[in-house]
Amino acid sequence: MKTLVKLTALACLAMGANASAGTLEDVQKQGYLNCGVSTGLAGFSQKDEKGEWSGLDVDVCRGIAAAVFGDATKVKYKGLTAKERFTALQSGEVDVLSRNTTWTNTRDVSLGLNFAGVVYYDGTGFMVNKKLGVKTATELDGANACIQAGTSTELAISDYFRENKMSYKAVTFDTADQTRAGFESGRCDFLTSDQSQLYSLRIGLSDPSAAIVLPEVISKEPLGPVVRQGDDQWFNIVKWVVNASIEGEAQGVTSANVDEMKEKGKPANKRLLGVEGELGKNMGLSADWAYNIIKQVGNYSESFERNVGMDSPLKISRGLNAQWNKGGILYSPAMR
Questions:
Q1: The Solute-binding protein family 3/N-terminal domain covers which part of the protein (predicted)?
Q2: Rounded to a whole number, what is the largest CA-CA distance in the chain?
């Protein structure tokens, strides 16, 4: 009987894996990529008054579309709250989740999902009103905290306060905008989230200069795109779209010089851009998949700077998100 139960369980797992396989073919048939993003977070995924989406996470989706279709515009975006995001991906409502989502053990091994890389290395931080006079997080004992529900921030803050023998009262909200509104209305003493999100939320305040982000970073929050388990081909495609963007920067290939590099570049440039080798064929893509990403979306540096870096309102420095040989930890496996 035990053997029968085990075999039945294995069969169910196999059926689940087979049911989720073939995402590339499904996406190609529908003619566009269904991409799950945030409900609105400046620099990462935000819709403007014309209904156009932009941001670092949005560029991941655009890169996937460029690789699959040769056209970065073939994407439909679905705004998802933190509570909704994993269910939407598990159910097939979206083909990929690119929504400032932290890679954790529990999410990676228990939800039937795979994280396909890191596009932003982040950490949990604190934002307070200047009038509070707080200079460090250790002064927040007994304070009220604005937190977005369903995020890894909830456990990070709980651990930090327990370790420092401090207490706090959580005031939770469903969306980032609601969390910011709660902070601005005075419902809590501080707002806690990933530091990148704090900078994004601060510029949405009626008076951004009234709030400061404290220096402490209390957790590791690697953010990246997520796919369903059971489809290795799709997992590989999304993973290597991220890597191609990072490797493009490392090789000095930009949207401005990509045509020249394709024609006159070094052997590594030619492999990346599909002139030599079979990187695209091995994934079921055209030879110019990475060329299309860099030509239409840009390399990692271009995406970072225009969305969250010095060319954006957020003015976030590269920090950990600089290339490994320039003081950061950003690194792509070899494209060969």
A1: 32-261
A2: 67
* The pair of three-digit structure tokens given for residue 267, joined into one six-digit string: 């052997």
pTM as predicted: 0.89
Alpha helices (H) in the chain, listed in sequence order:
2-20, 23-30, 56-69, 85-90, 105-110, 153-163, 176-184, 195-202, 232-251, 258-264, 267-272, 279-283, 289-296, 300-307
pLDDT at res. 21:
59
- Separation CA 292–CA 129 (nearest Å): 44
H/E stretch holding 334 reads: none
Q: Which domains does the chain have, with CATH numbers?
A: 123-220 (3.40.190.10)
Residue 331 in contact with residue 118, Cβ under 8 Å? no
CA nearest 252: which of 232, 242, 266?
266
Gap between the Cα atoms of 37 and 46, Å rounded: 9
Backbone angles phi, psi at 172, to 5 degrees: -100, 150
Q: Is 130 exposed, middle or buried (0-12, 13-18, 19+ CB in 10 A)?
A: exposed
Provide the pLDDT for residue 104: 95
**DSSP H helices in 91-223:** 105-110, 153-163, 176-184, 195-202
Return d(Cα 278, Cα 332) in angstroms, integer: 18
**pLDDT given for residue 18 in this prediction:** 39
